[in-house]
Amino acid sequence: MRDLEDNYDHEDNENDMEYILECVLMEDDGSDEYKELRNNYNSQLTQSCKCSKGVCSDLAECPHGGAYKYSSNKSELVLKSNNSLPIFECNGSCECGINCGNRLVQNGPRRDLEIFDSPLYHSKGVRTTVNIPQGAFICEYAGELITKTESQRRIEVNDSLGYMNYVLCLKEFASEEISEVTIVDPCRRGNIGRYLNHSCQPNCQIMAVRVECPIPKIGIFASRDIHALEELCFHYGGEETRPKTGSCKICLCGSLNCSGFMPNTEM
Ligand SMILES: C[S@@+](CC[C@H](N)C(=O)[O-])C[C@H]1O[C@@H](n2cnc3c(N)ncnc32)[C@H](O)[C@@H]1O
């Protein structure tokens, strides 16, 4: 086993963080699991649209569902509330233009986000300096894409050294069975998404959004209208209600329906 201190230098690992614009692949650990992850990471979705007028709107013409997943709310695209998943955005092979209504997450984080010292969580958090409408895109949870084994190793290291954990596991379901698992760790390489805290009554939600790659981006969206200066947070367990097993950390979210513990990170 590698030395614990190899990868995790000190408690406030933020200063060592490399800022990335989108997810990157973990280092090769020689495992078959890694090879599978790398193959997926290097694969491209082949479905492209032929929506020639620059705008995707017709379901028959646009295999991505046109702009039906997002709608225009005054000045910006927002996720529709009756959204049927999964979300596939238009991509570089599509014939529509960059302004088509089916491109949102690929355009990067919204402006007017601020990293601040959150008094509630006694650590860093993210807040907005302006009002945000329900359904608006906040940012991607970008970091290293890691295998299940590597995530378990990193979580164990974090737990044993008392470090914060940034590993997030997004599970997608098909007919109530888990169909895809995407695991992202922005501890060493990440973006602003890494600073969003967990809440049992969040104002944001996470969604799987695919652009060119079969591995989805973890998109963070406003789940209700959010006022300026509110802290942004999402439920780390997604929609899932997990049994409280293993070592659980006390939840500081302070919401009325707080479960008392943060969702555990067991996969
Ligand atoms: C993704 S980071 C969030 C940003 C973090 N607060 C920071 O300063 O970098 C996740 C870590 O934040 C802390 N955290 C997030 N939500 C929390 C909550 N509801 N209760 C207690 N700690 C929380 C935990 O230490 C957790 O491991």
Describe this protein's structure.
- The strands form five sheets. The protein has a four-stranded mixed sheet, covered by helices on one side.
- β10 and β11 form a beta hairpin.
- With about 270 residues, the chain is mainly β.
- It is built from two helices and 16 strands.
- The protein has helices at about 30-40, 150-160; strands spanning about 20, 25, 70-75, 75-80, 85-90, 115-120, 125-130, 135-140, 145, 170-175, 175-185, 190, 195-200, 205-210, 215-220, 230-235.
- The protein has a domain at about 15-45 and about 105-235: Beta Complex (Beta-clip-like).
- Helix content is about 10%, strand content about 25%.
- Bound molecules: S-adenosylmethionine (SAM).
- S-adenosylmethionine (SAM) binds near residues 125, 165, 194, 198 and 252.
- S-adenosylmethionine binds near residues 121, 123 and 166.
Q: Which runs of at least 5 residues are low in confidence (pLDDT < 50)? A: 1-13, 241-245
DSSP helical segment count: 2
CATH architecture type of the domain at 17-46 and 104-234: Beta Complex
Report helical residue fraction: under 10%
Beta percentage is 25-35%
The average pLDDT score comes to 87
Large-scale geometry:
globular
Spatial sequence of strands, sheet with the most strands: 2-9-11-10
Structural Rg:
19 Å
Attached small molecules: S-adenosylmethionine
Counting copies of identical and different chains, the oligomeric state is: single chain
Q: Count the strands?
A: 16
Q: Tell me the span between the first and last alpha carbons.
A: 21 Å
The CATH superfamily label of the domain at 17-46 and 104-234 reads: SET domain
The assigned structural class equals mainly beta
